[in-house]
């Protein structure tokens, strides 16, 4: 796929014209009128006169859609900039048609768990970003009194872990911590994001070959997700605080989510491009660049996720771009149990999604809902982003849904190229 049109940095476009503009539930020829970075009007194709000083971008038959919003990106700056940084991450986002990312609160040093730490992160990002960036705050044990001040300072909402995060500066929370945090968030219209896995102390130790993917998969069984999702659903119903399940891996948790939504819980859920693209059966021995948590599961589970997405039971698809340096992936040893968990796909999300979605009953009209407007609502950016409407930011992606391309390392912009290198999309 799916070549994305490059526009020179700093271009002052005042009209974008295409025969395939996606607005609401229609695809039609249109002129999009832009002023000062905002959409000010939408006219029938070719009807907008070109005045002196106007700059027309004629996209021909290329598709013009709302820019993609990726609400699950680990940028890691400051503190771990050898893993990723704002300049490289946002350049990769722009190359993939993503016009806004929301940065996760952990893996940077310091984490975004206080107003002071948030301001440190803002300063680190200043002057480096090629796309818009919003920020999640973090909930950790004991910081509940920081939450409302962080909201006032500008975070989009909060994320917590129900199991070890993998980094000591961002510890996971207990149910008691969650009751305290959600009491603080009641009435704010904020949202709390959950890494929804519970540890299982009764689970037998993993004794298989650490180079075999099935050994790692057995160490994070579906019931760890199911139990955690059930706890989140109950908390959501109790407090009526918006809750969101990040990177749902196991389709076994979907009945709980459907039941909670039906009962009135303000609960949403995302899955990721890698859960919709990869299958456990196809991961070779020692290929630790495929490790993430929760894990990539079996082909049948992948197809169940696609079916849930098609039926509207999953609200959005994200990258969960979680980079690290190659040495942490232990590529030489191939040890799935010890390698860092995380997959880098920020730049490739649109391509990955459409390459598989088009053969499963999805249309171009589904993409803005799953990759733009629903992520905008989650991140409290609706009304500004996520649609082609007058008054909205002129965040657009222009692309060819029929063109295929090969992924090569040289074309990737994120810092460490541990990703889908050489795969065709």
How does the helix and strand content classify structurally? Answer: alpha/beta
**Number of contiguous helices:** 11
- Main sheet, how many strands, which sense, barrel? 6 strands, mixed
The number of domains is: 1
Low-confidence stretches: none
Structure description:
By secondary structure, this protein is an alpha/beta fold. It has one domain (67-381): TIM Barrel (Alpha-Beta Barrel). Helices cover 27% and strands 18% of the residues. Helix 1 (86-95) links the parallel strand 6 and strand 7. The model has no long low-confidence stretch (mean pLDDT 94). One of its GO terms (molecular function) is allantoinase activity.
Short description:
It is built from eleven helices and 15 strands. The chain is of the alpha/beta class.
Considering the chains and any ligands shown, give keywords for the structure.
TIM Barrel; 18% strand; 425 residues; allantoinase; six-stranded mixed β-sheet; alpha/beta
């Amino acid at each position: 796929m799916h070549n994305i049109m490059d526009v020179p940095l700093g271009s002052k476009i005042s009209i974008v014209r295409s025969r395939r503009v996606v607005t609401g539930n229609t695809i039609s020829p249109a002129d999009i009128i832009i002023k000062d970075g905002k959409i000010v009007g939408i006219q029938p194709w070719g009807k907008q006169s070109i005045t002196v000083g106007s700059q027309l971008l004629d996209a021909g038959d290329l598709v013009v859609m709302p820019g993609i919003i990726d609400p699950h990106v680990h940028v890691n700056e400051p503190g771990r900039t050898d893993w990723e940084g704002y300049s490289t991450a946002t350049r990769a986002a722009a190359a993939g048609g993503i016009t806004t990312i929301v940065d996760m609160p952990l893996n940077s040093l310091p984490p975004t768990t206080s107003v002071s730490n948030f301001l440190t992160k803002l300063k680190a990002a200043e002057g480096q970003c090629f796309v818009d960036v919003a920020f999640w705050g973090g909930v950790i044990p004991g910081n509940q009194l920081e939450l409302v001040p962080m909201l006032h300072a500008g975070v989009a909402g909060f994320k917590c872990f129900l199991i070890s995060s993998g980094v000591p500066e961002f510890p996971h929370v207990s149910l008691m911590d969650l009751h305290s945090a959600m009491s603080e968030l009641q009435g704010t219209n904020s949202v709390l994001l959950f890494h929804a896995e519970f540890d299982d102390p009764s689970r037998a130790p993993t004794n298989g070959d650490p180079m075999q993917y099935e050994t790692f998969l057995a160490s994070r069984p579906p019931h760890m997700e199911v139990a955690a999702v059930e706890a989140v659903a109950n908390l959501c119903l109790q407090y009526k605080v918006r809750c969101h399940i990040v990177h749902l891996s196991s389709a076994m948790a979907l009945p709980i989510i459907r039941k909670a939504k039906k009962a009135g819980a303000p609960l949403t859920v995302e899955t990721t491009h890698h859960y919709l693209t990869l299958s456990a059966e196809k991961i070779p021995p020692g290929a630790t660049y495929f490790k993430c948590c929760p894990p990539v599961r079996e082909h049948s589970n992948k197809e169940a996720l696609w079916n849930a997405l098609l039926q509207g039971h999953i609200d959005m698809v994200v990258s969960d771009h979680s980079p690290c340096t190659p040495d942490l992936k232990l590529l030489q040893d191939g040890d799935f149990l010890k390698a860092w968990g995380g997959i880098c796909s920020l730049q490739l999300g649109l391509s990955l999604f459409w390459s598989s979605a088009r053969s499963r009953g999805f249309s171009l009209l589904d993409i803005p809902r799953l990759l733009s407007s629903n992520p905008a609502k989650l991140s409290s950016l609706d009304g500004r982003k996520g649609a082609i409407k007058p008054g909205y930011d002129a965040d657009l992606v222009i692309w060819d849904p029929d063109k295929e391309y090969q992924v090569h390392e040289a074309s990737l912009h994120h810092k460490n190229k541990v990703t889908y290198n050489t795969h065709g999309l």
